[in-house]
Fold:
Amino acid sequence: MTLRSLEAVDLAEICQRVDTAQGLLAARRNSVLDLLPATEVELAPAEFGDPEDVASLGVDETEFCYQVVDRVGRAEPFQLAKLFGARLRNGCHALMARPGLVVGESYHKRDFLLRLEGPPRGFFPIPVPLRVNGVETSFVTNVYDDEEPDQILPGPVVAITSRWASNYYHWMLDCVPRLACFDLVPELRGVPILVPPEGPRFQAEILAALGFTETVAFTGRVLSAEVMYFPSFFSPGLISRGQIEWLKTTMFRAFDVTPPERPSRRLFISRKGAGARRIVNEDDAMAMLARHGFEAVLPETLSLRDQVALFASAEMVIAPSGSGTVNAAYCRRGTTVIDVVPENSKHSAFWLLARANGMRYGRLVAKPVNLPASDMALDLVKLDAIVRQAAG
Structure:
């Protein structure tokens, strides 16, 4: 086998555009339909916290797939493509329109391919030359481009998998909202969903709760489908209000959760069971927070339904950045959230989620310890001050 240079393309470059779901379903060649238009979200700065902590949040911190200009975030249209003979590579989950062509939308958007670093977890990395918008880079994958498919699907399938699907945050924000394509194109009901093999238990639980029982496991190294329906990420380039509203409404219905009229619980999201970004002085912090009415919660110890109901009942949430913050999507608009971040991190996902969900956002920068785990030590004086500021 030999390595072949790859070229990144957009769906628009390989698909004919259609205007109706009926036109897409009847198409005999690669086609794409805009299901929802592009949207924008105004991203106000943090409202609570030490002035230095608040000032540390800048739009340049929006990494990965996020598109923010002058604190306005833009989400590209939510699209559904119909592809013939497309291939998927396991591990990296690169969508190949045909050998040599990587579809940028399999990573939110084409420019994101320039920012990918590191091999997919559990796979031997092979850097393959890649050209993106005329820029030479490399693409880390676990298979050769000219390797023939070892899993062939003769019938149609809907692909919602992604490189990060094993992570709860990314499963809930990257993968699950793409199931909205079934609401917008009801004729897809009955077409099986392509899912990762032997993934975390929450993947199967969520799909079952939402009524999606027809699935096909992605077990090969290279999969080829006769017909692949590929919904784009719901809000490529951003976390949008529509994305959060769909997720919230859908999960409330699936788990029969009725949010209280006046949420009153104050939650501190513990990461004691995590492998990174733990609070090393959490016991001291909780002793102080308990006086403000806070309770410590480990979301991973709760059922999915209980997680949904718990966050729907919250009036204030303090959380170190991590997968558990995605549950803030179930909070009521106006809920106060305080984001705890290590000073050596520039991750802004919780900020974007909070603004998309209309929540009041505060920021607390913590001293990193125990590198490279990025554990944190909280300044209890600053923590007490930000809680009083948010509650006042």
User: Anything to note?
Assistant: The domain at 255-391 is CATH 3.40.50 (Rossmann fold). The chain is about 25% helix and 30% strand.
